[in-house]
Amino acid sequence: MAAEGEAMTESVSRRRIWRRVAAGLLFTLSFAPALARSAGFPHIPVWATPYGFEDGSHFKPDTCVGRLTPPADSLISRPRTVTIRFLRDRRAEARPDFGGYRVWRVVNAPDTSKMTLIRRFSLNIGAGLTWNFSTVDTTTLEFMCKNEVVHDSVVTVVDPDSSGNYVKVCRHVDHYGRCLSRGDSVFALVAPAGPHNGFLTWYSVTYEGLNTQDNVNIDLFVPGPPDTSNNWANCGTPGDTTTCPRINLNNKYANMISAPVVPTSGPAPNLRSIGVVPNPFRAAEAWDQPGQSELHFINLPVHAVIKIYTVAGDLVAQLNHDDPVHDYQAWNLKNDRGNDVASGIYMYRIVSGDFTFQSRFIVVR
Fold this sequence. Notes:
It is a single chain. By secondary structure, the chain is mainly beta. It has three domains: about 30 residues; about 180 residues, no CATH class; about 90 residues, Sandwich (Immunoglobulin-like). Strand 17 and strand 18 form a beta hairpin.
């Protein structure tokens, strides 16, 4: 009887767990693009933040992340750092053609054709060290590691470009940037190019296909509806869907973060390098998203108050900057009443503690 009671308790517990899993999947899929949702192919929820987390892909010999003791919450304010998190999917990993996950990045605009592959977590031959997670039991759909059920469904990875490199820097240079003395240099940690320049940055995660024939690792192809875009231009016979190529449901757009992140080099120690970009601001430039025009006050300290005036001295808007990570404050070019400001020259004054800085910028509508 005791054994039956324990079995019943375990069965009830498992049903509760699966109800929670199902509820979580329904919640997740409700935010997926309509194409992936209608076809039932698992969408990958992805998040990104300009903060530092423990990297969930760290390597431990003969074990996997799910068997390690979870570290304390490691969210810290770390400049030049972007952390990406995504949710593994049991159904996708149980597919016989599943080969891993691929992490992508693009800046300026969410153009998936220009995305760069920055990280792989792969089960393919030759990529074993990139996968340090559990594997899915295709019968129970449990995450398993060494015959033990583990819980490592959330993958945390720091953008590899978040780490800088040490370069030799001359202590004293002239106004042309030339070194004035030999041997008088230091090694400095220099942040790399990539996402750490104040530009809007998008991330996406796709499934990698299992490589069974050659040494080319590519995205897993999951055929969806016929591609009839561009007025049937991709089809062999206009109007005949059987001659059209299939849309890949495992696409970067379906698994992209909902809003971009904007990493920076961190708050400035003083007000000497404060500026406005772009200046002049010109409406409808290539980097401006429709209806989302904004300019940035850059190189700010952690705490600052920004007041924007017309040349006549009328207060247009006030911004309160309080951010230990970002060195900029965005302004949507609207006054305190919510109306778009007109073309013209504007003055701004920045106050931080006992220090002030003021200058001007131009708006061209």
